[in-house]
Amino acid sequence: MPGSEKLVRIEPPEFVSVVVERLRLKGYEVYIVGGAVRDAILGRNHQDWDLTTNASAPDIHRIFSDIGHYQLKHDTVTLVRSHQKIEVTPYRAEQGADLRRDLALRDFTINAMAYCPSRGHLIDYFGGLEDLRRKKIRAVGNPLDRFKEDPLRLIRAIRIAVELGLQIEPSTWHVLKDMAPLISDCAMERIREELIKILLIQKPSTGFSMLRRAGLLGHIIPELLEGYLKRQNRYHRYTIFKHTMVTMDSVPPMLLLRLVALLHDIAKPRVRVKESGRWRFIGHEHESAKLAQDIMHRLRFSSSLIHRVAHLVRHHMINYSPQWNDAALRRWARKVGIDNVHILTTFRKADLIAHGTDIAAADLRLLGQFEQRIEEILRRENTVTSSSDLSINGRDVMKILGIGPGPRVGKILEELMELVTENPELNTREHLVDILRKDPRFVGPGAQ
User: Fold this and answer.
1) Would the pTM count as exceeding 0.85?
2) How far apart are CA 102 and CA 123, in angstroms?
3) Tens digit of pLDDT for each residue in 284-340?
4) CB atoms within 10 A of CB 265
5) DSSP code of 139?
6) Which domains does the chain have, with CATH numbers?
7) Using an 8 Å Cβ cutoff, are 398 and 362 in contact?
8) Cα 291 from Cα 298, distance rounded (Å)
């Protein structure tokens, strides 16, 4: 078979084997294609399995009528069993569709190999195996045509390069840079998914640096470029952009932490002013939280994730002082939310490391003290961080004071929270009922 080469047999999941065998028994050609083949050659685990076949979409629906499936992309049928998904796509070609024409329309040679499960053969018409050995990413055929077909490939080339430690070969790279403006034609949801994959690699800064050099970053998150080559002050060794990159590399590979790292200083260039010969960034955390929301809305992130990232950016400085008493620590935990305490301390540690100065080293020691104290406080049984921790609730307040539902109930619970934050021993039902009945803030002429 032309373009074939013997390959150590790929062992797909059982569900993939079932689908392949059923298509074959019905008389259709079927091949494993795309990233699954590439990753098998590299010895990497692969979650997404794609098949190509000479069966039509209606044929696929009919053959797998007993298996859950749906069709979102043009002609691609996604089969679903438990938590496994397999995409089955008819050969793609304008005319005379066959395997070779289908592979000729794929993005890069390393993704344009096919594996025949029944024969144990690798089909490699375009030199993908050799490119893998040379650690190169090369477009199939004319890169101009491949990027025009789907501009998302502009980002995907960079994502695959940094994910697998490959280099984009020169002719593909030059066309990629020339066509960078086309990325604006892509749906933001698709761009977001590629960015997430870059954010979660071991060193995401390599991906963002390539996006910048390719001219793509300016079309996706232009706000990041405002900090490029912008110097800071004696507290920072690096420019704003470089500091963001180092911080991003320094936090664990969790999407929430990586997004906070990416956006925590995003508004610094906009609030940057020079006073007495020194750059200052007053209120940058609040402005960065607002700008982070705008950027994440534009990239179609979920509302819940946008809200949490903005909240963490707003509070990322911590601003701890050894003079804080236990009540101040409890108040801080209440303000940021108990679920965010560890996230913020983990982030702030990476943020300070990325300052790269001796001053930051001293701040890291202070942060260690803060972590120790806040963890000790949160371990105590009587620590109150939200109104749900109070020994009475809104219904109790209404019954004791003889009032109906409304904003006043919430305000009273907030004031009780303040009291028990200062004096946790007051958080018993007996104490709080007594306070409600006797404190002039809640009863009598002074009650609000």
Assistant:
1) yes
2) 12
3) 999 999 999 999 999 999 999 999 999 999 999 999 999 999 999 999 998 999 899
4) 26
5) B
6) 4-132 (3.30.460.10), 135-220 (1.10.110.30), 222-380 (1.10.3210), 387-438 (no CATH)
7) no
8) 11
SS3 357: coil
Q: Which two tokens stand for residue 95?
A: 């005319």
Contact 436, 443 (CB under 8 A): yes
Beta strands in 64-204 (DSSP E): 68-70, 77-81, 84-90, 114-116, 121-123, 136-137, 167-168
Query: CA 368 → CA 209, 320, 332, 345, 385, distances in Å?
Result: 32, 11, 16, 9, 21
* Cα–Cα distance, 343 to 311 (Å, whole number): 12
Contact of 384 with 427, CB cutoff 8 Å: yes
Strand 114-116 and strand 84-90: the pairing is unpaired
Q: Render pLDDT for 194-221 as a digit per residue (tens, 0 to 9).
A: 999 999 999 999 999 999 999 999 999 9
- Locus of tokens 């002609």: 75
| Residues 414, 371 contacting (CB under 8 angstroms) | no
Residue 34 contacts residue 50 (beta carbons within 8 Å): yes
Q: Which of 71, 84, 77 is nearest to 28 (CA)?
A: 77
Sign of the dihedral through C-alpha 95, 101, 102, 105: negative
